[in-house]
Amino acid sequence: MSAGGNEFEMEMVMDEVREKKQEIRNDIAAYFKSLGSDALAENTRIIENRLFEFANFLESKIVMLYVNAEHEVNTDNIIKRAYEYGKIVVLPAFDAPKGTMKLMKVDNPDKDLVAGSRGFAEPNPAKCKAVPLDCIDIAIVPGIAMDEKGGRLGPGDGYYDRIIPDLPMTTRKVGLVFEKQLVPQVPMESHDKHVDIIITEKRVIYKI
Question: How many domains does the chain divide into?
Answer without folding.
Answer: 1
